[in-house]
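Task: sequence design from structure.
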């Protein structure tokens, strides 16, 4: 069974890029969300194996969403997506329980490497 992944990013273009990388590599994208509160709802509904989560989003950012998801499921696997220059936020995300992070613009091999590493 393919690993089921939820993509969270406020930019439709970024979601499309990640979806493309994942599906080409045999992963199943079970859902997409464009902000943190949607991510939490989708997580409860879909129970994905992994989430790719943008750090900076309107409404609720990725770090707040990550903390909320970790409250629901302490074993949730989340990989944060950040733009260059967000080191402090990446550190916050890792401390909040993120398993790894990938930097935009995405490089397919790095995305897949992070996912394989996280899923074990």
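Answer:
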């Amino acid at each position: 069974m393919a690993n089921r992944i939820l993509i969270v990013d406020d930019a439709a273009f970024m979601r499309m890029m990640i979806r493309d990388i994942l599906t080409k590599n045999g992963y199943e994208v079970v859902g997409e969300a464009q902000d943190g509160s949607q991510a939490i709802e989708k997580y409860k509904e879909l129970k994905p194996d992994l989430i790719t989560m943008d750090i900076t989003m309107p409404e609720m950012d990725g770090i707040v969403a990550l903390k909320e998801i970790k409250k629901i499921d302490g074993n949730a696997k989340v990989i944060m997506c950040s733009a260059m220059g967000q080191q402090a936020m990446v550190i916050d995300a890792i401390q909040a329980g993120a398993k790894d992070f990938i930097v935009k613009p995405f490089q397919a091999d790095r995305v897949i490497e992070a996912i394989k590493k996280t899923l074990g």
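Residues 12-24 form the longest helix (13 residues).
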